[in-house]
Amino acid sequence: MKLSRSTLSVALLAALVAPAAHAEIALDVIGNSEVSFEGLVQADYNYFDSDFADLNAGGDALDGRDSDNELRRAELVLKGKGPGNFEWVVGYDAKADKWLDVNAKYKIRGDSNHYFQLGQFKQPNSMEELSSTKNNDFIAKALVTNTFGVARRLGGQYRYGANDWGVTASYFTRELTEHPAPTPHGPGYGLRGNWAPINEKGNIFHLGLSYVDYDTFQDTVRLRARPGADLAGTRLVDTGNMTNTDRQKTVGAEAMYVTGPVKLQGEYMQTKVERYNNGNPRQSHNFDGNSWYVSGLWNITGETWGYKEGTPTTPLPDEPASGMWQVGARFDSIDLDDGIVIAPTSPTAAAAVDGVLGGQMDTWTVGVNWYWRSNFKFMLNYVMVDSSKFMARTPTTGLVNPADQNQLVNRKVDDNPNIFEARMQFYW
């Protein structure tokens, strides 16, 4: 299913001319269901100051330039309330050509913290992933979220809790939108608990734990991460295809503290990929990887955050004409190394790896956000990357620059680029 450019233009025009467009646009009441319309459009620009690898390589970026720009999202969402305690949502991203949330929810006794949900929805294992995309603190989500987080999947979910705490259990299968094999995940289950011992306006302390366990589709897992830039065509850390795999299990911990206009948060995930014993020691070792981040955000204009179902909620500007200004910083780290190097048998041979050496990467991201009025957001980020990955090559492999071959045989290669990012966003 693809939406034409004219269809998307009509939708955007309807949102622009609608009154009070920040809230969803009320359309009609159909079958005792109050139907409304929401949308999100994001356009990104990345400039790459590459170091070793060409970050603008691959895909549509084979143009020799150091920059790339792209319509990142064009999300169109229909929502319904009713009849009774039922709610439903159908969302579609016209840019990515994929389904978003497509589900129905039944609130028990009308309680927003006690419900059943069926369909496609975000799985309960990452505070950042569960937060609204339009209010992300930085342009690219954290390395841990993009690498280990399980996003939208088909399944069923039950949540029970109150304003200060909650427990969520989910069973899921594949995504609603088909992808080329192997698909990211097979069937599995997820659990998340959240607790806010302090929860009042301008003063919130949140803790959370999560766990997901799922079958690896077609017995293959590949873990990799872009360097804090969604438009980068190259992953600086990459395990490659790990075959002979059975299940992937990820445990996560999260914390957040809000005091007035300041928000501090962090998440940690550790994943284990269990592999079958097929008699080959190098293909039978389980893989362990981990990633984490810590971030801080300051609303210069004084606004503070809310709290709902274990995630922060972002307010509207106190002064719509001047908008809400934010500055922030985030440190990310990921480790996909779980193996050792076996020395080559001759000077011209490549070294062997017992296990997996996917690489390590740290990034610093600093940024400024401007929420203008009720529907617009502008973001600027600067990302500094420090990565290293083992390269097992022979002198006859054929690198991009043959003069560098002897320096790149069987050693770790450091790659430390810098990236400038910008985003323009319109939502209603």
Protein model, in words:
- The chain has 428 residues and is mainly β.
- The chain has a single domain, classed as Beta Barrel (Porin), CATH 2.40.160.10.
- The chain has four helices and 24 strands.
- It has helices at 5-17, 127-130, 143-148, 281-284; strands at 25-30, 33-49, 67-81, 86-93, 98-107, 115-122, 152-161, 165-172, 188-200, 203-215, 220-221, 224-225, 237-238, 242-243, 245-259, 262-275, 287-299, 306-308, 311-313, 324-342, 352-372, 376-391, 411-415, 418-427.
- The strands form four sheets. The chain has a 16-stranded antiparallel barrel. A two-stranded antiparallel sheet has the order 11-14.
- The radius of gyration is 23 Å and the shape is globular.
- Mean pLDDT is 88; it is low at 1-21 and 396-407.
Task: Summarize this entry quickly.
This protein has a 16-stranded antiparallel barrel with strand order 2-3-4-5-6-7-8-9-10-15-16-17-20-21-22-24. Strands 11-14 form a two-stranded antiparallel ribbon. The protein is mostly beta strands and 428 residues long.
Please state the CA-atom Rg, rounded to the nearest Å.
23 Å
Shape: globular
CATH class: Mainly Beta
Strand order of the largest sheet: 2-3-4-5-6-7-8-9-10-15-16-17-20-21-22-24
CATH architecture: Beta Barrel
